[in-house]
């Protein structure tokens, strides 16, 4: 599939990625999920398209303002590698966001052992981007969003690994907070459900994307009938289902196909749209950089192409459309 034939031609074009029967809400609620911006003010190119990251985040912010979303969620990796100068630029861009927002740190946002620069602590990150506290709960009428930190624990950032872990105290907090909720959504950076099966998901580099000891969190979600989990980290659009729980992996703003996820929740369920933040030239550039990248990244590019071509990936109940533009995965406004 050619990079300009993915069904997204211009900034603001939408592609239906999935339709879930739940969560539902009597009042229409819009949730924007901006995955992995990786803002980099002193870097260029690579498959992450570093030299366009500021532009892509600014475009996403402008689009969220125009669509009047209820909450903007950043599931991690706001910066290239947690550099203070890149955080400063993120803050300047976020000043233009007119909607409430929350962010959780990604593996690139907090200190790693090999870093030669200082990064903010997990508590400083929460002060800056999560109303001072992670985990946190955000209420939007019937919808309750629970934001977890899978990049750090009670002793600080996971400096030795890019894999994630939701600490025991966060899981206990979530177990208590979920009591009595009717339409909960849980968000963290790392993937609760791998996109490939055992034993492949246990091998490098696939295991980098899944959290450790994830069964503990999954059991709490199943106990409380949590039907939607939001994550990032993988740099591709994907839907993974385990039992009644669905995991939406938001693609990276930084890299191909340069989109963010818009969730529209109403009485019929949840529609997940990919919203373009680049035109054809920008998307072609991102595609070519990904195609020239490492072998594994080319594998992810192929998975991304398949996802765009096969969208919607999941329809509950089976989607019935009058317009061929949706069924054929063409852009709509």
UniProtKB/TrEMBL annotation:
Belongs to the cyclic nucleotide phosphodiesterase class-III family. Residues 30-236 form the Calcineurin-like phosphoesterase domain. The lineage of its organism: Archaea, Methanobacteriati, Methanobacteriota, Stenosarchaea group, Halobacteria. It comes from the Archaea. It comes from Natrialba swarupiae. GO terms for molecular function: hydrolase activity; metal ion binding. The keyword Transmembrane helix does not apply. This is Metallophosphoesterase. The keyword Iron applies. Keywords: Hydrolase, Iron, Metal-binding. PANTHER family: CYCLIC NUCLEOTIDE PHOSPHODIESTERASE CBUA0032-RELATED, PHOSPHOHYDROLASE. Pfam families: Metallophos.
